[in-house]
Amino acid sequence: MKEKLQKIREEAVRQIEEAKELNALNDVRVSVLGKKGELTAVLKGMKDVKPEDRPMVGQLVNETREAIERTLEETKKKLESAELEHRLEKEVIDVTLPAKQNSVGHRHPNMIALEEVERIFVGMGYEVVEGPEVEQDYYNFEALNIPKNHPARDEQDTFYINDSIVLRTQTSPVQVRVMEEGKLPIRMIAPGRVFRSDEVDATHSPSFHQIEGMVVDKNITFADLKGTLAEFAKELFGEDTKVKFRPHHFPFTEPSAEMDVTCFKCGGKGCRFCKGEGWIEILGCGMVHPKVLRMSGIDPEEYSGFAFGVGLERIALLKYEIDDMRLLYENDIRFLKQF
User: From which residue to which does any coiled coil extend (predicted)?
Assistant: First the structure.
């Protein structure tokens, strides 16, 4: 038995020393020390050993196991160290090379301007509402007091899908849809993409964005409209900004006006930016036409309201002093990353 154990030990040590990788070491461990290994087979044969010889044989088996396990552990550490050294040599990093720069995106100038406008009106208690871009002719025109023979339909150069479906030319249809729900009072803004058959130039595009706002409640007057928009202009362009209202005509408001703000470049003195006038046109507005209220199921004798609409691109162009609208859509990273 002693000779057999000595032979198992010598053969195991030889195989361990010849092993060149960790997998080979594991194979030796299993073949000698595993459940079906040679040393385990010796232990199972202890029943055939004389009782008086069993302590001595058990001691020899344990010494052999310890010697093999010790050799396995020492060789494992050597192989792991050699493998680590080889991997470090193979995967060496040249720290003098320039690092790869991640190109991280950020918000578009339009989105920055939109979030600023939304922040201002939400702070005043307004709700942000969205609606469909493919709209019914009724909501885009008729419900806004623009019947089929109205010249405004020609002025807006609409994209028609068929006789009753259009690509919306404004976000005012969202206001009509909200009024039809009958939940009063209403304080809302409706930002979104709109479409008109315009030629592309520095100030026009067939696809652009508008922000329409509306308030409907009892005893709403033009003074409320003026106060709201004056506060909006101050928040957007600076505390010293003043506003001026000029009479105008919109089919869905009466009376109607266009609003100018003092040039935030020269403070109203006149400069190249405002073309020497000291004022910059920014939006259209007015009191909601009684007929529009009535068509949406609201009694104009009890309720009144005001509405306004501003081009999002116009705000971005003015706020960031951009002189060509096309720059917003050409996706030139050199331009966009400035904001």
Answer: 65-92
Determine contact, residues 50/85, Cβ cutoff 8 Å.
no
Tokens of 58: 């058990």
Look-up: residue for tokens 């002189």?
Answer: 323
3-state secondary structure of 147: coil
Q: 290 near 266, Cβ under 8 Å?
A: no
CB 215 within 8 A of CB 339: no
User: What is the residue-wise DSSP string for 65-110?
Assistant: HHHHHHHHHHHHHHHHHHHHHHHHHHT---TTSPPPPP------HH
Overall pTM surpassing 0.90 (yes/no) = no
Give Cα 184 to chain centroid, integer Å: 33
May I ask the CATH class of domain 109-336? Answer: alpha beta
What was the pLDDT predicted at 52? 64
What ranges in the chain are assigned the alpha helix state H?
2-18, 22-33, 38-44, 54-90, 109-123, 137-140, 152-155, 172-180, 222-237, 290-295, 312-319, 333-336
Per the DSSP assignment, residues forming a β-bridge with 140 are none
254 is in an annotated binding site: yes
- pLDDT for 316 beyond 80: yes
Which residue is associated with the tokens 């339909």? 153
SS3 assignment, position 254: strand
Give me the long-range contacts of 59-66 (CB less than 8 A, separation at least 24).
60/1, 60/2, 60/5, 61/5, 64/5, 64/6, 64/8, 64/9, 64/39, 65/33, 65/39
pLDDT in tens, 220-240: 999 999 999 999 999 988 888
Residue pair 197/157 in contact (Cβ under 8 Å)? The answer is yes
Which strand (E) or helix (H) includes residue 207?
strand 207-217
CA 127 to CA 210: how far, in whole Å?
16
What's the confidence (pLDDT) of residue 70? 79
Q: At what angle do helices 312-319 and 109-123 cross, to 10 degrees?
A: 100
Peptide bond preceding 51 in cis form (omega within 30 of 0): no
**Cα 69 versus chain centre, distance:** 58
